[in-house]
Amino acid sequence: MASPITPRGRAPQRQARVAALLRRPKLWLVPSVLATLVALVLSLLYMGGILDPSVSLHRLPVAVVDADTGAPLPGQRQNLGAQVTQAIVAASPVGSVDWKQVSQAQAQDLLASGKVYGALVIPADFTASVGALTTAHATTRPTISVLTNPGVGSLGSSLASQINQNAAHQASLTIGKELTSSPATAGVDATTRLLLADPVAVTTQVGHPIGQHSGLGLSAFYYTLLLVLSGFIGGNLIHNGVDTALGYADSEIGPWHTRRPTVPINRTRTLVLKMWMTAGISVLTTTMVMVACVAALGMDATHIPLLWIFSYCACLAVGLGVQAINAAFGGIGQLVSMFVFIALSLPSSGATVPLEAVPPFYRFLGAFEPMRQLSAGVRSILYFGARADAGLLRAWIMIAVGFALALIFGFSMTRYYDRKGLHRLTPQPAAEEEPAQA
Question: H or E element: which one contains 419?
Answer without folding.
Answer: helix 392-419
